[in-house]
């Protein structure tokens, strides 16, 4: 029993915290970053779209199947505005809480009906089971993670969150935000202003072209996960 639990913990550690083999950051030599939003679409989506449009910026939205059913107009608005729309799963549950048949459905679902181009999947919480990577390969999905977290789910004010996020952002960074928290639109505006002042252009993940996380970067991510 202890060995099984240890294997589950190790799988999640290597897949989520280290991110080995998943898509991570882009080139550190190009002045571009990717803004990504999890959990939508929802009532906050129009506010986020307005902020992005005001700055002439594009982003990547990882959406869930229940949210897409509940907010079809907002989903259409994401597509119409030219943002990249990718999958966050059928359920917002950690992979370790899903039986294999449900995780298959979780990974296989995607909001884009077309089958052209890569289809990205960001597991809820970044969580991994021993089957996550295998299922992603079998369904033709690429796991996409992040290297900077905005922490917009905390109670901190937008200005403080923006300052902390910008301090961790480098060229090539993939920034994680959420489509839902009340603070996120204001935080997004502050981030976009700060990125412009630093000469960093926000682009979609497809335009950023993130690379797969290798051993060296994985070790750095792992240390950073417990060093902050």
Automatic annotation (TrEMBL):
<dbReference type="InterPro" id="IPR011330">
    <property type="entry name" value="Glyco_hydro/deAcase_b/a-brl"/>
</dbReference>
<feature type="domain" description="NodB homology">
    <location>
        <begin position="31"/>
        <end position="203"/>
    </location>
</feature>
<protein>
    <submittedName>
        <fullName>Polysaccharide deacetylase</fullName>
    </submittedName>
</protein>
<dbReference type="InterPro" id="IPR002509">
    <property type="entry name" value="NODB_dom"/>
</dbReference>
<dbReference type="InterPro" id="IPR050248">
    <property type="entry name" value="Polysacc_deacetylase_ArnD"/>
</dbReference>
<dbReference type="Pfam" id="PF01522">
    <property type="entry name" value="Polysacc_deac_1"/>
</dbReference>
């Amino acid at each position: 029993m202890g060995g099984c639990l240890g294997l589950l913990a190790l799988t999640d550690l290597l897949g989520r915290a280290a991110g080995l083999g998943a898509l991570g950051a882009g080139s550190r030599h190009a002045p571009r970053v990717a803004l990504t939003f999890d959990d939508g679409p929802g009532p906050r989506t129009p506010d986020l779209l307005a902020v992005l449009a005001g700055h002439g910026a594009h982003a990547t939205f990882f959406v869930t199947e229940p949210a897409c059913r509940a907010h079809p107009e907002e989903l259409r608005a994401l597509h119409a505005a030219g943002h990249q729309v990718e999958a966050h799963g059928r359920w917002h549950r950690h992979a370790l809480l899903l039986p294999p048949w449900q995780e298959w459905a979780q990974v296989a679902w995607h909001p884009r009906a077309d089958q052209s181009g890569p289809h990205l999947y960001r597991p809820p919480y970044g969580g991994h089971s021993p089957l996550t990577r295998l299922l992603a390969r079998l369904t033709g999905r690429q796991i996409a993670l992040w290297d900077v977290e905005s922490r917009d789910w905390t109670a901190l004010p937008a200005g403080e969150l923006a300052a902390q996020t910008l301090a961790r952002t480098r060229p090539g960074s993939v920034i994680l935000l959420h489509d839902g928290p009340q603070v996120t639109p204001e935080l997004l505006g502050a981030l976009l202003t700060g990125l412009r002042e630093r000469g960093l252009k926000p682009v979609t993940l497809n335009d950023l072209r993130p690379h797969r996380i290798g051993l060296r970067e994985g070790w750095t991510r792992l240390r950073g996960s417990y060093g902050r």
